[in-house]
Design a protein that fits this description.
Elements (H helix, E strand, L loop, with lengths): L11 H8 L6 E4 L6 H9 L5 E6 L2 H10 L5 E5 L5 H4 L5 E7 L4 H5 L25 H7 L2 H12 L4 H14 L5 H11 L10 H11 L2 H15 E11 L2 H14 L4 H6 L8 E3 L8 H6 L7 E7 L2
Parallel strand pairs: 1-2, 1-4, 2-3, 4-5
Antiparallel strand pairs: 5-7, 6-7
The protein binds S-adenosylmethionine (SAM).
The site of S-adenosylmethionine has 21 residues, from helix 2 and strand 2.
C-alpha cells in the first residue's frame, strides 16, 4: 500500500524539547498519526530507549509498520484512554498527546470526515468500531442531534439543523457526506469564509469518536504510567480540549488540596506546571494553517 498523504507535526521543536528526553528513557506517543513526533523522539534516544506509540486508527498503525523499521518502536492499536491498562504503573519518562485528526484522515475521502469530498458518511477514527456517523444519524432523536451539535461545536443553529436532518432522512437515509452537507446548507447560509457545515461535521465527529471523554480518561491514566519527574506534553486544538486540559492541570497541581478534598479526590498534588501555554509561531501558522488553533501545555509528575 502507498501512503500518499503527509501530516506536518505541529510545534515539532517545542514538543521534543518539552519532553526533556533522556537517551535510555521510555516515551509514549499516544497519537502516532504519521509519526512526525515519534520520529523526533526516536532521533533523541539511544539504543536502549523506546517509544510506545498508540493510535486507534488501523491505517496509522499499518503505516507505522511499513514505514518505520526500528526495534525501539512498539505499536499499540487502541484508544489512548486504555493507557494505564496497556502499560505498567510509573514506567514512562514522558507522554505526549496531540489531539484530533491527522491530515491523512481528513484528506482521504473514504474516511467521511470532510464535507469537501463526497464519500460514505463514516467518521470513525477506529475502523473496527461498529457505530458510523450514518448509522447514528439514522436513528438518533431530533433533540439528541441538536444537543450533539450544540454541546460539541457550539453550533447555535443546532435545532434548525437537527430538524432539517430528521425531515431529510424521512425522505431518504443520509448516507454520504454530500447529503449531510446539502441538508445543512439548505437551512444555514454561509457567513464569511466558513463553510455552513463546518460545525455540524466537527460535532458529529467528536461525538462518534467520544473525543472529549477519551481525553479526560486518558489524562488520568497518563499520570499513572508516568514516573515521578516524567513530563506530560499535551497539544490541543478545540476550545473544549483546551478546557479539559486546563481543568486537569488545575485539579492536580499544588495549591488545590482543599478543592480536591471537597470533590473527594486525592489531596496530594500530582503535577507541577512547566512554563506557560505555548502557541505556534506566525511562520508555522503560515506554513501549516492546521496549527493555528494549537496550544501546547506541559506538566511534570511530582507524585
Ligand atoms: C493530530 S494526529 C497526530 C499526529 C502526530 N503527532 C504526527 O506527528 O504525525 C492525531 C492522531 O491521533 C489519533 N487519535 C485520536 N484520538 C485518539 C484516541 N482516543 N486514541 C488513540 N489515538 C487517537 C488519530 O487517529 C490520529 O492518527
Amino acid at each position: 500500500m502507498t501512503y500518499q498523504y503527509k501530516h506536518e507535526a505541529v510545534m515539532f521543536e517545542e514538543t521534543i524539547e518539552a519532553l526533556s528526553i533522556k537517551s535510555e528513557g521510555t516515551y509514549v506517543d499516544a497519537t502516532f498519526g504519521r509519526g512526525g513526533h515519534t520520529r523526533g523522539i526516536l532521533g533523541q534516544l539511544g539504543q536502549d530507549g523506546q517509544v510506545i506509540a498508540f493510535d486507534r486508527d488501523q491505517t496509522a498503525i499499518e503505516y507505522a509498520r511499513s514505514e518505520i523499521m526500528d526495534h525501539r518502536l512498539h505499536l499499540i492499536h487502541a484508544n489512548y484512554e486504555s493507557i494505564s491498562k496497556k502499560m505498567d504503573k510509573a514506567s514512562a519518562d514522558g507522554v505526549l498527546v496531540d489531539c484530533g485528526l491527522s491530515s491523512p484522515q481528513l484528506d482521504e475521502a473514504g474516511r467521511g470526515f470532510s464535507f469537501l469530498k463526497d464519500a460514505p458518511l463514516d467518521m470513525r477514527m477506529d475502523q473496527t468500531q461498529p457505530l458510523t456517523a450514518a448509522g447514528w444519524l439514522k436513528n438518533a432523536q431530533e433533540e439528541e442531534i441538536a444537543n450533539v451539535l450544540y454541546l460539541n461545536a457550539d453550533e447555535r443553529r443546532s435545532r434548525r439543523i437537527a430538524k432539517a436532518i430528521c425531515e431529510a432522512r424521512s425522505q431518504s437515509e443520509i448516507l454520504t457526506t454530500k447529503q449531510l452537507s446539502d441538508v445543512v446548507q439548505s437551512v444555514v447560509r454561509r457567513e464569511g469564509k466558513t463553510h455552513p457545515a463546518t460545525k455540524t461535521f466537527q460535532a458529529i465527529r467528536v461525538f462518534i469518536n467520544d473525543e472529549f471523554g477519551s481525553l479526560e480518561r486518558f489524562l488520568e491514566g497518563a499520570l499513572d504510567v508516568l514516573k515521578p519527574g516524567g513530563r506530560l506534553v499535551m497539544i490541543s486544538f478545540h476550545s473544549t480540549e483546551h478546557k479539559i486540559i486546563k481543568r486537569f492541570i488545575q485539579m492536580n497541581r499544588p495549591g488545590n488540596e482543599d478543592l480536591k478534598r471537597g470533590l473527594q479526590t486525592l489531596a496530594v498534588p500530582r503535577v507541577k506546571r512547566i512554563g506557560r501555554v505555548i502557541k505556534p509561531s506566525l511562520q508555522e501558522i503560515r506554513f501549516n494553517t492546521r496549527s493555528r488553533s494549537a496550544q501546547l501545555r506541559i506538566v511534570e509528575k511530582i507524585a
